Amino acid sequence: MAAGKALAPVQRMMVSRVIEHMARKGFETKIHHTKKAVVVSVIDPNGTPDVGKIAVYRDGSIDGEGGSSLLAFYVMNVVQDLRTPQGHAGGASRGVADVLDERRRHAEEGPWIPASGGTEPVFRSRSGRRLQYLYQPSTGRHAYYDVDNDVILSNEDAWAHLGR
Questions:
Q1: Structural domain boundaries of the chain?
Q2: Rounded CA separation 60/48 (Å)
Q3: Hey, what CATH topology would domain 9-83 get?
Q4: Quick check: 144 pLDDT over 50?
C-alpha cells in the first residue's frame, strides 16, 4: 500500500483480504488509491490484458467488476465471499463493522483454549472444514473453532459442518 495514504482500519483489513483471496486463486494484484476508495486491480495470470477491479471503501464495503466472463466470475465470487462470511447462518450479509464488533466482544470475554484440558485435537468435519472444540474459562462456554477461517462458529454453523 502506498506510503502516506491513511486507510481506515476496516478498509486496510478488507484490502488485505481481497489480495489474499485473489492470490489463492492464482491472480496477481496491484493497488491504487482514488478519492473514494482503494482499488485492487486483478490481473489475469494467463498474460491477457484483461483486468478486473475491486474497490474497497473507507467503511469496509466493497464492489467489483471484471473484464472477461471468467475473470468477472472470480472477482464477483471474491466480492460475495467477503460480503457474506462463510458459514454465517442463513447466508445473511454482515458488514465488516459487525465482524469487527464480534471479534472485539470475543477478545473482551477472554481467551479460548482447546477443550478437554487443552488436549482437544483439530479434526476435519463432514463439510471438509478443520474444526477444534474449545472452552472459554471466563464464561464457561464451549464452541467449535473454524481453524481455516479463524472464527468461532455459532451452534447452528457448527452443526451444519458436523452434519447434524
A1: 9-83, 94-162
A2: 30
A3: Double Stranded RNA Binding Domain (3.30.160)
A4: yes
